[in-house]
Amino acid sequence: MMRKALPWIYLLLAVLGAVLPWRANLEFIAESGQTFDLQRFINDANVTAASRSLSADLLIGASAVSIWICTEGIQQKIRGWWVAILMSFGIAFACGAPFFLFLREWQLQGRVQDSDPAS
After folding, report:
1. Which of 4, 40, 95, 114 could bond 91 through an S-S bridge, CB–CB 3.0 to 4.6 Å?
2. Nearest Cα residue to 17 out of 102, 85, 105, 99
């Protein structure tokens, strides 16, 4: 039962991963005079030790997962895997990574159903 729900859980996380970071981004834009000041954003992301820790964690984790998305997407012939990379950079990594997991799980479940004689 959980396995069938898994793609939808990943898709929900992808939606939340788009909405929640962008809600904060829009708040930042409003505070910055209706423009996205990249230099200020980077500076703000590095003001405290805690924010530097989160920034480094995100950079390293997102880099590793992005490499995995590219290799896994090609290796497993996952349709649209590259969209997850675009979403990671264009929307938020918190959106792109779960979207890739949705695509991967959706395809894996399709393969299981295709090879299951009972289905």
Report:
1. 95
2. 99
pTM for the model: 0.87
Question: What is the distance between the alpha carbons of residues 99 and 95, in angstroms, rounded to a whole number?
Answer: 6
Would you tell me how many other CB atoms lie within 10 Å of the CB of residue 19? 13
Q: Nearest to residue 70, comparing CAs of 88, 61, 82? A: 82
Q: What are the Cα distances from residue 44, in Å, to 17, 19, 107?
A: 20, 20, 40
19-75 pLDDT per residue, tens? 999 999 999 999 988 888 999 999 999 999 999 999 999 999 999 999 999 999 999
Where do runs of H (alpha helix) occur along the chain? 2-31, 38-44, 49-75, 81-90, 93-115
Instruction: Indicate the domain borders of the chain.
Output: 10-115
Q: How far is CA 74 from CA 5, 32, 77, 79, 82, in A?
A: 25, 40, 5, 9, 9
